[in-house]
Design a protein that fits this description.
The chain is of the alpha/beta class. It has a single domain, classed as Rossmann fold (3-Layer(aba) Sandwich), CATH 3.40.50.150. It is built from 5 helices and 7 strands.
Length: 191
């Protein structure tokens, strides 16, 4: 399998997926260049010497340059909400989530799947304000965005759900950090 790990510059998923796809498989990690610091680059280069079937490419977060028709599987963990985020501090301009998904769709082979995990937000009418304040997203917004982009929802899981999280705290708040209520969606690019 060829796997695309979106916003995976920390190497977490690549370290798990690299051995799983074996020496004939490959994991391409994409990192937003705003976040691909010299420290992360150095760390990732050392990781690639230990895991030779993993590579990384960086391009602006708001304009991902992804390999076309590459991936059998894509991982997008806790980062889709950031397509609604903007930050002067991190040089992330207001972006169009639809254009991000268009690039992801083009990077996938027909029939490929994408796993999406993100922090649950309560339903509301201002996704951008919610993301800016809490770094959470309404699962129905994600479903609608992916459907508009041509994906088909083929699976969900409650494995990472946490009913004790009421969705009102910033995901970095110590009371919920690492244990937020999260959704897991599996979308497919039609064959």
């Amino acid at each position: 399998m060829d796997v695309l790990d979106l916003a995976g510059g920390n190497g977490y998923w690549a370290e798990i997926i690299g051995p799983a796809v074996g020496p004939k498989g490959h994991v391409a990690v994409w990192a937003g260049s705003q976040f691909y610091t010299p420290e992360i680059k150095k760390s990732f280069e050392a990781f690639m010497t230990r895991q030779p079937n993993v590579s990384i490419v960086a391009s602006p977060f708001e304009a991902p340059e992804l390999p076309k028709n590459y991936a059998d599987f894509v991982m997008l963990n806790l980062d889709y909400h950031d397509t609604y985020w903007q930050s002067e501090k991190y040089r992330v301009p207001k972006m169009d989530p639809g254009l991000f998904l268009k690039a992801v769709y083009a990077a996938m082979k027909p029939g490929a799947t994408i796993g999406v995990i993100d922090h649950v937000a309560n339903p509301n009418s201002d996704t951008r304000a919610t993301v800016d304040k809490l770094h959470r997203i309404d699962p129905d917004v994600v479903k609608a965005d992916f459907k508009r982009a041509g994906f088909v929802l083929v699976g969900t899981s409650d494995l990472l759900r946490n009913p004790a999280d009421d969705h009102t705290l910033l995901v970095y708040d110590p009371r919920v950090r690492g244990k937020t209520d999260r959704f897991i969606f599996k979308f497919k690019k039609p064959s």
